[in-house]
Design brief:
With about 450 residues, this protein is α+β, with helices and mostly antiparallel strands. The chain has three domains: about 80 residues, Rossmann fold, CATH 3.40.50.20; about 70 residues, Dna Ligase, domain 1 (2-Layer Sandwich), CATH 3.30.1490.20; about 240 residues, D-amino Acid Aminotransferase, Chain A, domain 1. The chain is about 35% helix and about 30% strand. It has 15 helices and 22 strands. The strands form six sheets. An eight-stranded antiparallel β-sheet has the order 13-12-9-10-11-14-21-19, sandwiched between helices. Strand 10 and strand 11 form a beta hairpin. The relative contact order is 0.12. Bound molecules: adenosine-5'-diphosphate.
Length: about 450
């Protein structure tokens, strides 16, 4: 096992990893920008080291600075968290070239899944159901027209290098195709330096359902059920639950096995998420994330596992501590993301927290890096807390979420807590009857 792990991240996810290190008796090194000198992850880690100025590109994304921090502190492995360098294959290669261990999959697997055309092609070959669409890239508008005509509208033009909802354009009819095609290409070129696009059938009322997988890197893999993340704003998840209100045990076992077999087949190592759109009882693969997800705690609650501990074990060459048969879901978990944002515009609201009280009690987990007197810097993601509740069934989980939101106090800044409180009054949320467009539609009238 490692003696010391460096956490190449900040905020709640840095704390999450430090906590796992402590419980495993492993030393932890926090890295931070000058803007984060007073951050909780710096206080909580065994050691800390400043890696640059506030700008992410000069600190949390600076590969030379992070490698130097490992060399100075003697850390043997790096946990990337999510975001920042977590899906950067070049970083993984450099980490290995320096004799260090990256806690996550190989650079090859990250590359394979980072390119959406290759990812889809690989998954298709592995027997994972995919959204119908072009086989591979679509080089010209003429090709796009032919494919869209054959498939039928609406279609979505997507960048193979896309991410974070960028480089994705909808064409409802043939009249929209030319513009969708050229804007998807130019957006992708500008954002990712690559203008290759492909075409998919646009599903009109799907849910977003993702399967958590975990592999040992040696041909063995398991699944840990699904998370329903259909409640999204601008393709960003705001509320996640497991199990999905629409997935039964038989369906879970079937799609879960397809996913576990697929990643076992490629000797995938560590945590991964296979994302699907789900419509009329069918799953359609859209992408795979080769890292820990923000919403992993709902899976941890329902399956009673520690995914970060497991990531560290597998990276150290140990076997997984569970088999598929050990993984039996128990109860229902919901996570809400609390952001420092002013509603209804969702305008970032950094600043000083004058008072903070976290909810507690049975079945409540609060993953957050904020504290009384903490000043949220304006440079990073606005996520300030994840509130996760676990209860025997969905209605008990909703009740527990409601009372936990009642207990939560964050004064001095604006947060998205009122949004979650309002959502919990909506009959569709209470009954679980929502799709990926539900929240955007509802927000049009939310003031
Ligand atoms: P990104 O990597 O940019 O997040 P994804 O491929 O994961 O892109 O898609 C993000 C979201 O876009 C999905 O959760 C869904 O809401 C929507 N989306 C993507 N593909 C389709 C499709 N074929 N039909 C309908 N909606 C889609």
């Amino acid at each position: 096992m490692f003696n010391k792990i460096l956490i190449a991240n900040r905020g709640e996810i840095a704390l999450r990893v430090i906590r796992a290190c402590k419980e495993m008796g492993i030393g932890s090194v926090a890295v931070h920008s000058t803007a984060d000198a007073d951050a909780m992850h710096v206080r909580m880690a065994d050691e800390s080291i400043c890696i640059g100025p506030p700008s992410g590109t000069q600190s949390y994304l600076s590969i030379p600075n992070i490698i130097s921090a490992c060399e100075i502190t003697g850390a043997e492995a790096i946990h990337p968290g999510y975001g920042f360098l977590s899906e950067n294959a070049n970083f993984v290669q450099i980490v290995q070239d320096h004799g260090l261990t990256f806690i996550g999959p190989t650079a090859d697997h990250i590359n394979m899944m980072g390119d959406k055309i290759t990812a889809k092609d690989t998954m298709k070959k592995l027997g994972v159901p995919c959204v119908p669409g072009s086989d591979g890239g679509v080089p010209t508008l003429k090709d796009a027209r032919r494919i869209a005509d054959e498939m039928g509208y609406p279609v979505i033009v997507k960048a193979t290098a896309g991410g974070g909802g960028r480089g994705m354009k909808l064409a409802r009819t043939a009249d929209d195709l030319e513009e969708a095609f050229s804007t998807a290409r130019s957006e992708s070129k500008a954002a990712f330096g690559n203008d290759e696009v492909y075409i998919e059938k646009y599903l009109t009322l799907p849910r977003h359902i993702e399967i958590q997988v975990f592999g040992d890197g040696k041909g063995k893999a398991v699944h840990l059920g699904e998370r329903d993340c259909s409640l999204q704003r601008r393709h960003q998840k705001v509320f996640e639950e497991s199990p999905s209100p629409v997935v039964d045990a038989e369906t879970r076992a079937r799609i879960g096995k397809v996913c576990a077999d697929a990643v076992a087949n490629i000797n995938y190592a560590g945590a991964g998420t296979i994302e699907f759109l789900y419509e009329n009882g069918e799953f359609f693969f859209i992408e795979m994330n080769t890292r820990l997800q923000v919403e992993h705690p709902v899976t941890e609650a329902v399956y009673g596992v520690d995914l970060v501990r497991e990531q560290i074990r597998v990276a150290a060459g140990l076997p997984m501590s569970f088999e598929q048969d050990d993984l039996v879901p128990d109860g229902h978990a919901i996570e809400v993301r609390i952001n420092a944002e002013k509603l209804p515009e969702f305008r970032p609201s950094p600043g000083k927290i004058t008072q903070f009280h976290a909810p507690g009690g049975l079945g409540v987990r609060m993953d957050s890096h904020i504290y009384d007197g903490y000043s949220i810097p304006p440079y990073y993601d606005s996520l300030i807390a994840k509130l996760i509740v676990h209860a025997p069934d969905r209605s008990a989980a909703l009740a527990r979420l409601n009372r936990s939101l009642d207990e939560l106090v964050v004064d001095g800044i604006d947060t998205t807590t009122p949004l979650h409180r309002a959502l919990l009054e909506e009959p569709d949320i209470l009954s679980g009857d929502y799709d990926i467009h539900w929240l955007e539609k509802w927000l049009e009238t939310y003031r």
